[in-house]
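Action item from last meeting closed. Structure (419 res):
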């Protein structure tokens, strides 16, 4: 992508993202600065046209980075800012503490993955690490990519069962989730043993995607693609997950045939969704390793930008100045009812006005506002899932609705169990 085209794309992305301000309180200047820093951290691009931020705007930017678990990644751009444009000490000091925690978590994850990998190999198990540290390795500074869970996929049901027995034998308390996978906590880190290596949910998508060898570049890109789709529809997607996919496109550039990958996704019924996702990666994140789909309506991309910015990482939400997260099921339902497109109008405004309480939760555990009680519940989860389902019926196979129902049902069961 030429420099002129890149600048036009980035200016368009900033206008697009700022049109709804990614929520009701996020200032356009903050979002513009955030995206400039993010592109610098990911692609080492010069930061041009930087506008000096006030201390309050810096606080908002730092909060946005933390909500999307990008504090470590964005810190890599701090040294590239123009002179006399540094973050104030009251923002920089806690930010650097967060970066240190990210580095410590990365070291812990590396230790656990290494220990478990040796255990699996000793027993002759075929284990594949999904995302996680493998995604981190694709960044310029791997230890600054925030770690989530440790996800293992085992090539056979027998290997999966043996891995469970090894974990249980080492004192781990195994729990079964709604998908039939197993998870447990090891040294404070959640570890999951998966029966499947991807989140494809329709029969058509599973038939196509499951036929791919998991280690291939095409499979790795598709895996991240459908993982994002799942979280966008159910509620709880952050920019880090999309950055992971953008980094994967750079990492695997030249190792696969783009036309073949597009064909796989179309055959799986995910061609329209892939076009929407690619438009986000190109226009917002600035990924130059894929082609933008010009057929994606601007209103649909605007909705996805708003949904991602409002959600934060797995539904934790963006908080403004210590205030309440701004997204909610009613807002999304308003978008869904507006002819299936994220248009502004009475329903959207009404949803925004009514949804003063955050509806999504971090895997259903609920978000807290101002130190109060978690606000999400079974009805909120169902409302959020249905509203997103209405929107994405345009972009994903209808069979994905069954996936949403299954996930919501699992969350409801956990809520009842923990209440």
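Sequence:
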């Amino acid at each position: 992508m030429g420099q002129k085209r890149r600048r036009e794309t980035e200016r368009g992305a900033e206008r697009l993202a700022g049109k709804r301000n990614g929520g009701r309180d996020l200032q356009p200047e903050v979002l513009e600065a955030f995206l400039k820093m993010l592109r610098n951290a990911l692609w080492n691009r010069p930061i041009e046209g930087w506008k000096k931020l006030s201390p309050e705007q810096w606080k908002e930017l730092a909060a946005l980075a933390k909500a999307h678990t990008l504090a470590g990644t964005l810190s890599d751009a701090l040294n590239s800012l123009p002179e006399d444009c540094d973050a104030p000490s009251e923002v920089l000091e806690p930010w650097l503490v967060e970066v240190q925690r990210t580095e410590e978590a990365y070291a812990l994850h590396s230790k656990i993955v290494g220990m478990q990998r040796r255990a699996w190999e000793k027993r002759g198990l075929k284990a594949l690490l999904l995302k996680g540290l493998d995604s981190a390795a694709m960044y310029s500074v791997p230890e600054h990519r925030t770690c989530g869970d440790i996800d293992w996929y085992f090539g056979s049901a027998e290997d999966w069962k043996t891995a469970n027995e090894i974990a249980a034998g080492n004192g781990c308390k195994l729990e079964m989730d709604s998908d039939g996978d197993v998870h447990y906590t090891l040294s404070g880190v959640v570890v999951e043993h998966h029966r499947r290596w991807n989140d494809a949910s329709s029969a058509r998508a599973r038939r196509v995607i499951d036929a791919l060898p998991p280690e291939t570049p095409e499979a790795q890109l598709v895996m991240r693609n459908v993982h994002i789709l799942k979280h966008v529809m159910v509620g709880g997607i952050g920019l880090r997950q999309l950055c992971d996919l953008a980094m994967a496109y750079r990492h695997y550039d030249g190792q696969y045939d783009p036309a073949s990958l597009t064909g796989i996704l179309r055959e799986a019924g995910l061609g329209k969704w892939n076009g929407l996702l690619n438009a986000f990666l190109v226009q917002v994140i600035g990924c130059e390793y894929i082609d933008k789909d010009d057929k994606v309506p601007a209103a649909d991309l605007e909705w996805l930008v708003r949904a991602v910015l409002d959600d934060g990482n797995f539904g934790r939400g963006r908080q403004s100045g210590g205030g309440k997260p701004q997204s909610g099921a009613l807002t999304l339902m308003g978008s869904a009812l507006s002819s299936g497109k994220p248009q502004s109008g009475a329903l959207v405004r009404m949803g925004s006005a009514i949804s003063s309480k955050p509806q999504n939760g971090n895997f259903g555990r609920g978000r807290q506002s101002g130190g109060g009680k978690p606000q999400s519940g079974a009805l909120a989860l169902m409302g959020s899932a249905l509203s997103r389902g209405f929107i994405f019926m345009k972009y994903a196979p209808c069979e994905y609705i069954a996936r949403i129902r299954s996930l919501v049902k699992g969350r409801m069961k956990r809520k009842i169990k923990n209440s």
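Note appended to the action item: The longest strand covers residues 189-194.
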